Structure formats: C-alpha cells, structure tokens
Amino acid sequence: MQDRIRQLGSELQRAFASKLQALDIDRNEITLTVGAPKLIEVMRQLHEPSEFGFEQLVDLSGVDFLEFGQGEWDTHTATSSGFSRGAQKASFGRFTFDDAHPDRQLDRPRFAVIYHLLSVSRNLRLRIRTFCEDDDRPMLPSVCGIWSSADWYEREAFDLYGILFEGHPDLRRILTDYGFTGHPFRKDFPLVGHVEVRYDPEQKRVIYQPVSIEPRINVPKVIRDDYRFDADDREESDA
After folding, report:
1. How many other CB atoms sit within 10 Å of the CB of residue 176?
2. CATH code of the domain in which 15 resides
3. CA gap 8, 11 in Å, rounded
C-alpha cells in the first residue's frame, strides 16, 4: 500500500504541480492543499474516470483554526495544581455571550474545508484541504455539480461553521432549529450557547431567554506525580 500511495503522490504532483499549495504524505494518507480559485478545476480532474477516478465524495467538513495551538488544552506544559486552565477561560468557547473576547492573530486563514474522496475502482483515498480567503465572509465554490452527495455536507458546513458555498442549489440550515442565530461549531461560539428555551405557562408557548447557566469546567486535571513516571520511584519499585 505504501508504494501505491507514493505512486499516487507522484501522479498528483505531475498533474497539479502549479495548482497545489502543498502535498503531504503522512501515515500512508495524502493531503492536498488547494487554493480556492483552483478548487473546481482540480476537483473535476480528480473525478474524471480517465484521470484519477475519484468517483465518491465520502465526506466534507469545515474547520475553524481560531483556537489552533492555544494553551488551554495543552497538557505538555500544564501544571498539576488542578483545574485552573479550565477555570481561567483561556479559549473563546469558554466565554459567554456578554464577555469581551481577546484579540487573536492567526498565521493562516481562519476557516478551511476538508474533502475526503474515494476511488472504488483504484481502492484509493485522498484528502483535499482548501482555506477560505475571507475570514469575515468565508466562501468556497460548491462541488455539488461534481458530486451530488456534497449537497447535504455543504449545508452542514454552512449551518455549523457559517461557510458559504457559491453555486449551491439550496444552501440553508440542516441541523439547527428554525430561526437559530450563529454557528455552533465556531470556536468563538460559547459552549453554553447564546440563548436557552423554556415553556412559559403564562404565555402558553415556548420562549427564548438569555442563558442562565455558567460554562462548565471540562478540562481534566493532569496528574504528574504518578510513580511510574518518576525514575527513582520506578527503580525502587522494581527492586
């Protein structure tokens, strides 16, 4: 399989040399990074049976890099003194709707879309990554005209991340409720949401109101005093 992956990588490099931003092979998986202006051209060629024959779009998902590399979830340099990382609200998702958000400088576009392709005829898989050029209004061309399965996948990415797909035949929410505000998978969307609903017996209907609960601390304590990780204690135990 490793030889086949390397061969596919060489074929892709020859076919798209001037259209790729990156080609990475890791754990026998190929990831192509393609710029938004070249996306449809590359996708059509990958789908073409006489070219590469990736006839199935298995999955499509959005990614928000806003919290990429942030320290709240870093267990390598964290202390062993409890849950302070979770309590200090180091990431956007821990904030409520009325908290001020700190400025974050990213070294890449914030939003990306990942495409997973499958070639049944060649028994090969391929991952495509494309970054949205505009962080404020992320948009990519729709691939529904190439793979019809992209219809619902693109609606899901729009619903959860707010990524727009130009040319989609019916781009509307697919998972959240009617009238929902915001995109819940964005890293700056509070974990508790913006509003909560309840039934009002006086009005005899369901009403929306501000969230009345605080975000939960969901970062686990990092235990570092286990004897198994201390050289002296381990030697004594072995003795």
Report:
1. 13
2. 3.30.460.80
3. 5
Contacts of 75 (CB under 8 A, 6+ apart): 222
Of the chain, the percentage scoring pLDDT greater than 90 comes to 53
- Which pLDDT tens digit goes with each residue over 100-110? 666 667 778 99
Domain region containing 129: 2-66+106-191
* Number of domains present in the structure of the chain: 1
Position 158 in a domain: yes
Residue 85 has pLDDT above 50, yes or no: no
Q: Is 88 a domain residue?
A: no
